[in-house]
Every structure is written in C-alpha cells, then in structure tokens.
Design goal:
Number of helices: 6
Strand content: 5-15%
Number of strands: 5
Oligomer: single chain
Largest sheet: 5 strands, parallel
Order of helices and strands: EHEHHEHHEEH
Strand order of the largest sheet: 3-2-4-1-5
Distance between the termini: 16 Å
Length: about 210
C-alpha cells in the first residue's frame, strides 16, 4: 500500500481552527486462495477496522463531531449514500451507520462521467495493446482523465467542507490525489495497517 498524498500529518494538539478531514484507507479485495493465509488476512482486516473505529472516536472527541462523510466512488448526485456504502464495504458500513445515527450525512464526491471515463481507459490498458504508439496515446488519455477526476474531487471537497468543522473520507489505499490545502488533514493509520500492507505485498510478490 502506498501513502495517500504528500500532505504532512499535523499533530492534533496543534490544531486550532478551520475545517479538518480524517482520511481512512479502504482495504481492497485480495484474491487469497490459501485457507490459512486467507483466514489470517481476514482476521487482520477485522482488527484494522476495530482500530480505525477507536481512532475515529478519539480524533472526533478532540476535533469535533463528524458531520460529513465522503466515500470514493459514490457519485455527487446519489441520494442513497448509506446503501451505496453497504454495497461497497460492510466493515465501513458499520462505522458510517453509527456516525449517521449521530447526525452525520454522506456526501458524494464523484462525477460519475469522469469516473467512468477513467475506468474505460484503464480497461483499454488492461486489454494489452500491441502498438507502442497506441499505448502512448491511451496512457496520455488515462493521465488526463485521472487529473480531471482528481481536480473535481478536490473542488467538491473544498465546497462541501466550507460549512463543516470535521469530516471523514474513505479512499482506496492506492490513491494519491491532492487533498484541499486549506483543510487540516489527519490520516487514520492504526498499527494493523502496516501488517496488512506487508501481507498484500507478500501475496503479490510471490
């Protein structure tokens, strides 16, 4: 897993005013077939989400109650955010359900047209292109699509966080988009995350 973005993580004790955003890694699906290794991985993921839940509670006690929740892949026009989260990740759903019960709202951050464009270019690359010239063109289009999507997400977050003191965003661990500069950013990175990173690396390096 790679680190999210290039933003330095400020100390909670140094936070004074303005909006702040808690950032949590989504743990993607890993196609482990070995029963023993799969069981250990699932146990570590469960431990990770327990640690995330604890850290979110601790941070929100210091920074203020979370009032807005963002989730990568949920469109800006989606009205059933909680159901969308439930379909995407049941572990995150438990966290989000508790927060929404306390008054938080889920806000979409994706332009689905931009997201679909990016996915289509990714599919083109995955098909295996034989022409180097075509590959270059597709890679350039892929880069441009990613930049447009990232710019939209950043602007969307800036707009949504104007009237929000404390927000929470779930993003895939491979993402490296730039989060808004005016928002204090705190990464939720419990001890189990390093263990999971190592397990995923070992799986793909085998």
């Amino acid at each position: 897993m790679t680190n999210l973005g290039k933003i330095n993580k400020p100390k909670v004790s140094s936070y004074t005013e303005g909006s702040c955003l808690l950032v949590v890694n989504i743990i993607g699906n890993v196609p482990i077939t070995d029963k023993d290794k799969k069981s250990k991985f699932e146990a570590k993921v469960a431990q990770y989400w327990n640690q995330v839940t604890s850290q979110i509670k601790g941070m929100s006690n210091k920074l203020g109650q979370i009032s807005k929740i963002f989730y990568e892949y949920i469109g800006k026009d989606k009205k059933d955010g909680l159901n969308q989260v439930k379909k995407l990740d049941k572990n995150i759903y438990k966290i989000v359900k508790e927060l929404t019960d306390d008054g938080a709202v889920i806000r979409g951050i994706e332009d689905e047209n931009l997201l679909n464009e990016l996915r289509d270019w990714q599919r083109c690359i995955m098909t295996g292109l034989s022409s180097f010239a075509v590959q270059e063109k597709v890679l350039e289009q892929l880069k441009q699509a990613a930049e447009k999507r990232d710019r939209f997400i950043k602007e969307r977050l800036e707009e949504e966080m104007k009237e929000c003191k404390t927000g929470l965003i779930f993003v895939s661990s491979s993402r490296q988009f730039a989060l808004p500069d005016k928002i204090e950013t705190f990464f939720i990175e419990p001890p189990a995350l390093d263990d999971i990173s190592g397990m995923i690396k070992d799986f793909y390096d085998k």
